[in-house]
Records
---
Amino acid sequence: MSKFDYNELIDNETMLQSRSIFWDPDIYQDELKQIFNRCWLFLGHDSQIPEAGDFLRTYMGEDDVIVVRGEDNEVRAFLNACSHRGNKVCQAEWGKTKAFTCSYHGWAFDNMGELAAVPLEEEVYDNFDRSKLGLVPVARVQNYKGMIFGTFAEEGPDLVEYLGDMTYYLDVILDASPEGMELIGTPFRVEIPGNWKLPVENAIGDGYHVAWAHAGAMRVVGTIGQGRAETVLGIGKDNTGYDDSGQMHVAIPPHTVLSTLDGQSGYALYDNPEPCIEHLEKFRPSAIERLGEVRGKQLLGSEMHMGVFPNLQIIQGLNLLRVIHPKGPGSFEVATYSMADKNTPAHVKEIIVKHVGQTFGSAGILEGDDGDFTEAITHSPNGYATRQMKGWLGMAAGRTMDWEGPGDASPGIVNELCQREFYAQWQRTMLAETTSEILPEKIEQKEAANG
Ligand code: FES
Ligand SMILES: [Fe+2]
């Protein structure tokens, strides 16, 4: 039983939230248990480990995890901790191997997690049962169209049930072509001294900060700087004037989507968007056949930010996928991957990877701006008086719009619906006694708009 009243820390009526959720170490410990030990978490993509023996390392909460395609071609995930004394059995970030050999005393585990060899086994052990000393597996690992997720929860919703109607939006990226999406190269990684929830809410919903917080960056990257457009994403040059038509926030509990609906503005921040748009338009007719008119024309190519609770963001326009790994209440690691449909020509992929590096790579100019705010918001409550303040997420509350796809939509990307939904789900998960209670009650189903 937690000592906190999570109904009080997040007030869904007044939309006020306690600042303690960003710094309190005991709340953070509750998060590791209630959220990261139970939710489905993104582990990687098939394109990263295509062959038997391929592996990568990632985190589930603060647990170091190895994701590996075994000799039998099955993808499994294991805690990166030796069953002897707990040393890491894998130091590399990715690679290919038949065995993970512990650097402390040399126990070796095969790529299906079994303990395969123990130095001096016969000389020093009696009645030794290797079969009981394999790597500790992540309870369930499942795949949705190439995306590998894992959960430590033995019971509760399957992955597809957990993703729910979010698959309607995910498929714009994952199912636009028969080949599907791929992650290109290795991720950019950077550790930032802020609470993990802040970069999540920023990426999934905060269209408000873009033209203001990134005003300097915009002068050197993208079309604002080059004067090619009077407005970008509906916001006027110099942050004056705003047109919210053809844009939305959508809550698909427990997940969220922010999107423009013009099918092209995803490339608004590119220095060199023409080759990307040329490829997109060539590709679009076949994508419309697969996805239907609404998704093929309005969503494909738009600036679309998908938030899969708790810590995965897929950003179509910027062609990146990122995962936020918590590192204590006041620090997180962001892993940012470049992504593209597999059918994307090499010269377009090159532009994409360069753009991701410039904007949200380790030294990316947009990542740098956002890191500063995240740090300040996390650490200002070190002061006792500041700690008594509350944060407010009341923007566009009650505004609704018609939208054919699943979820409840509200107009504009300058909106706080996605952030409110993220914290409502955070609260639900912190309060849920069983894993089955993590998902919200099913809201009324709309007919999926494929036509
Ligand atoms: S800790 Fe791994 S072999 Fe001893
Ligand atoms: Fe930002």
---
Amino acid sequence: MKTRYLTCIICPAGCRLKVGYQGKEVVKVAGNKCKKGLKFAAEEIVNPVRILTTTIAIKSEKICRLPVRSKQPVHRDKIPVLVKEAKRIKARAPVRQGDYLARDLLGTGIDLISSCTVDS
Ligand code: SF4
């Protein structure tokens, strides 16, 4: 059995988890204060994903960087290259929260949407 130490990111408590696993199967979890930590540990061992958040350039009278996020969860390993690709995208106001700014980034199936509304 292998062991990994993870910090649960489901809530601000940030429990330090000791996870025992074999292959992709979690055998034992310690350090969690609630059951959500068990689910987090299992997902983190099998397929660790995050919502990508970053900013891109925007042509606007009010701001010069637009907060954006991925529409879908992204495998943790792909985040650096997708953030780099996102930096190439430029938006132009007006933009509404949830507007698509890019679809299928680098053929990954990941779409980028605006996190806020900018009128002008
Ligand atoms: S194990 Fe439960 S209490 Fe601890 S950080 Fe995760 S969700 Fe929060």
